[in-house]
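G., the chain you wanted modeled:
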Amino acid sequence: MSALPDGPGGRRPHPVDGDGPDPDTADPGPETPDGRRKPSAGRNLPVAIGVGLGLAAAVLASLLIQPIAFLGFAGLAVGVACWETGTAMRRGGKNVPVIPLAVAGALIVVLAWFGGATGLLLGTAVGVAALFVWRLSEGATGYRADVPAAALVLVQVPFLAGFVLLLATSEEGSARFIETGAAQVLIMLFTVVLSDTGGYTAGVLFGRHQMTPRISPKKSWEGLGGSVLAAALGGSLTLWFFFGVPIALGVAFGVCVALAATLGDLSVSLLKRDLGIKDMSNLIPGHGGVMDRLDSILMVAPVAYVWFRYLLG
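Predicted structure as tokens:
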């Protein structure tokens, strides 16, 4: 892959791809007959698959066997993701309170579980307000950058994740076709996995045209097509076979999930590029950090909530 062009004002963008290795130093992949390069995977695929299957099994067990365990799982994941993102922002020069953000993130998830939409909104609002109080003691230097950066963490991680908890605790009968909250969450996660898998496969095999070269150089329009196709086809067939959802509705649901997942991935890639990092952390072998695995799910969660609450209601 060719080097990235200089940014505005002659300043070179961070040579970091949030979804893989440095595009200027990594193996660009095999050359195609037209002289272009196919993107390489950039991950230890066997390790990534093994860890991914283990995480999926843990989520599945917590949802189906002991739902309160899912709350603990979600609270831990969100707290760690807030810690990762806050730590990355501190390395990028933003004075944000890492530990308070992690605690607030976990508490917002708990409030969403027990208090529903009201608890989610109230928890997020109180958390953002607390950031203003915290920042009073730090003085005026950097105020305009620090508070928005910290607020972004609360909105991007626990607030969006809260919609997963709203789905998990939705009352029976809130959706005409899929009545249990656990089933709604599983369908959402399964469709996200289909989207990610379809995008990865299509991007590696057929990727030729970069979609967002200045945000995530390895993403291609062919990969987006694979994401949409896999989510629409697999998601609609699953919804029809298990729950009797009309194929047309299932296709629309899958397309919305694929587009939201891609936007979530790109939004986190943009943040990582701005901070000059490749992964939020290296806590999960083959995957990077917790936030690197939640990026797609976070943006999909409110979209899936709207579908299950209103469009399939």
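The helical segments are 45-64, 67-91, 98-136, 143-168, 181-206, 221-243, 247-275, 290-311.

Shout if anything looks off.
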